[in-house]
Amino acid sequence: MKKRITAYIITIVTAVCMAFMVTACGKSETENNAGGKTIEGDLQEVMAQIYAGVDLDAETKEAMQGFVTDTLTSDNEQALLGVEGVSYTEGVYSVPMISSIAYQCVLLRVAPEDVENVKTMLKENADVNKWVCVSAETVLVENVGDVVLFIMSDQEAAYAVSASFQALAQ
Question: Are 81 and 106 in contact (CB under 8 A)?
């Protein structure tokens, strides 16, 4: 009788655990990454807020304030995204004017149902060797809600920008 009760309890506990796992796995990665949070506002302003909040040395932070930030267009998306045909409703990029630094940061606002597809496209087509004589050591592609961050740079800058981006989530 004890064996049957023990087996019954184990079966119930296993079933409950599986139900929780199926529910958790059923959420999209977008929901898991964003936690229901969003970033509101014009992406040019968002980029400025990211740079203002970045935790780097003063010289690097000041240099970032001078990077060119402009609108992503069909003319420059291949060079910046590594692929054409990425579906987005708004896009901005930030790059150094003239520099021997391998750095670019792109923000895209995409339809919520396209977030994971866009992130996959960016990861698969990132070219860390696209600069002359230098390479990016880190590629990060992440999102908060419908805003996707795509950055290629040195590790310290990439993670500092990512942390500042995540801190903007509301």
Answer: yes
CB atoms within 10 A of CB 139: 16
Neighbours of 157 (CB within 10 A): 24
Take residue 165 and report the two structure tokens written for it: 């981006």
For residue 86, count CB atoms less than 10 angstroms from its CB and return exposed for 0-12, middle for 13-18, buried for 19 or more: buried
Model's pTM, two decimal places? 0.78
SS3 state of residue 104: strand
Arithmetic mean of pLDDT, 97-113: 92
The pLDDT value given to residue 170: 81
What gap in Å lies between CA 150 and CA 131, rounded to an integer? 16
Distance CA 11, CA 163 (A): 43
Structure tokens at 22: 């199926």
Q: Decide: 143 and 33 in contact? Cβ < 8 Å.
A: yes
Question: Residue 62: how many CB atoms within 10 A of its CB?
Answer: 11
